[in-house]
């Protein structure tokens, strides 16, 4: 079964850190794009960071968040530091088609075909 499962969300105070993880199951190749997106209540989903041949970050998280991946484990990570209340959202992991060599020049949700159910991140002031 092809699926994406996120973990690692939670509640922290402003200035704190969290690490999200995401595992893709059912993909046979190790080359495909992966990314993190988030959606706050009442807002549209937005890109956070994506990883392919290189990584692209949203301006709002540059310098605070780090995306990384372990291709052998089909796992994507998002290290989030210096968290702010405005980072509060449900965070989604997504993957492109299996085997796609992904060259991101910007974060485009339409590049992704497989989505997880999301994990909640809440940052209090």
Description:
- This protein is mainly β and 125 residues long.
- It has no helices and eleven strands.
- A hairpin with a 4-residue loop joins strand 7 (65-70) and strand 8 (75-80).
- It is globular, with a radius of gyration of 14 Å.
- The model has no long low-confidence stretch (mean pLDDT 96).
Secondary-structure blueprint:
Layout (H helix, E strand, L loop, with lengths): L2 E5 L2 E4 L4 E8 L8 E6 L6 E6 L3 E3 L7 E6 L4 E6 L8 E7 L18 E2 L3 E6 L1
Parallel strand pairs: 2-11
Antiparallel strand pairs: 1-3, 3-8, 4-5, 4-9, 5-6, 7-8, 9-10, 9-11
Radius of gyration: 14 Å
**Oligomeric state as shown:** single chain
Going by helix content, strand content and strand pairing, the class is mainly beta
Query: Which of globular, elongated, flat, extended, rod-shaped describes the shape?
Result: globular
Largest sheet composition: 7 strands, mixed
Mean pLDDT: 96
Features:
125 residues, globular, 7-stranded mixed beta sheet, single chain, 4-stranded antiparallel beta sheet
Quick synopsis:
The chain has 125 residues and is mainly β. 0% of the residues lie in helices and 47% in strands.
